[in-house]
């Protein structure tokens, strides 16, 4: 029976950055599209979560090794970094979604496909002003509230939207969004490189906005820099990638 550390190929005293780097490497190798399997993917993910959450003891080992779930699970309401930078080593006090102060967080969203249609850019200063004047369909542009216990993807789904996703585990980038205004701290354990984090790219299956009003462009999986990280959703039983 392999321990979570053996599954990720790191020493028990490895620092957090080593843990994150090992997870990113192993979760790619374990992906069904890269020669792995859903079971292996899930085992790697659970091993990482056990170490991250300080539960990499015998019980956690057994849980990680004996998982029989054939499908990457829906993301738990996981701990989130308390920093907005891509430097996960700075995250010494993880903040769970339940720990976020009670507040109303409103997300103003815009579909990336609309930018293509209108010749707009994510970096346009007046992007959302233009969107507000364009009389777009509600699925392409609008606002909704994100509750404290929801990731952004969960909030979109709970409000009736069908935003893209596949793994729900931070590995495939199908759920990527670009932040135009506001903050959405990146959690530990995602596949995005630091330069993408610095450009405001986040994975909606793991992250949630923390500012009162946040503007995001969703469906950015084909944006340059993000598309290169995209894993096909075809191997995931529950996926929506349109
Ligand atoms: S759904 Fe795969 S990274 Fe979010």
Automatic annotation (TrEMBL):
Keywords: 2Fe-2S, Electron transport, Iron, Iron-sulfur, Metal-binding, Transport. Residues 3-70 form the J domain. Residues 25-104 are annotated as: Disordered. Its cofactor is [2Fe-2S] cluster. The keyword Transport applies. Gene3D superfamilies: 3.10.20.30, DnaJ domain. Residues 29-55 have a biased composition (Basic and acidic residues). Residues 63-74 have a biased composition (Polar residues). Residues 82-93 have a biased composition (Low complexity). One of its GO terms (molecular function) is metal ion binding. The keyword Iron-sulfur applies. SUPFAM superfamilies: 2Fe-2S ferredoxin-like, Chaperone J-domain. Pfam families: DnaJ, Fer2. Residues 132-223 form the 2Fe-2S ferredoxin-type domain. Belongs to the 2Fe2S plant-type ferredoxin family. This is Ferredoxin. It comes from Halapricum salinum.
């Amino acid at each position: 029976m392999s321990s979570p550390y053996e599954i990720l190929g790191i020493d028990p005293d490895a620092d957090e950055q080593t843990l994150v780097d090992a997870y990113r490497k192993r979760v790619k190798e374990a992906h069904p599209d890269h020669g792995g399997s859903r079971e292996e993917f899930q085992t790697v993910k659970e091993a990482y979560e056990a170490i991250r959450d300080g539960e990499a003891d015998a019980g956690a080992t057994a849980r990680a090794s004996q998982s029989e779930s054939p499908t990457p699970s829906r993301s738990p309401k996981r701990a989130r970094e308390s920093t907005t930078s891509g430097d996960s080593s700075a995250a010494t006090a993880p903040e769970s979604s339940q720990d976020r102060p009670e507040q109303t967080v409103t997300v103003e969203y815009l579909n990336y496909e609309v930018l293509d249609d209108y010749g707009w850019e994510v970096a346009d200063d007046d992007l959302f002003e233009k969107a507000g004047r364009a009389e777009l369909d509600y699925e392409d542009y609008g606002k909704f509230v994100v509750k404290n216990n929801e990731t952004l993807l969960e909030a979109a789904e709970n409000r009736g939207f069908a935003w893209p996703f596949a793994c729900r585990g931070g590995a495939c980038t199908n759920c990527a969004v670009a932040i135009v205004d506001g903050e959405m701290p990146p959690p530990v354990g995602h596949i995005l490189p630091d330069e993408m984090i610095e450009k405001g790219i986040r994975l909606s299956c793991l992250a949630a906005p923390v500012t009162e009003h946040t503007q995001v462009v969703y469906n950015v999986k084909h944006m340059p820099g993000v598309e290169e990280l995209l894993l096909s959703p075809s191997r995931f039983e529950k996926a929506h990638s349109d």
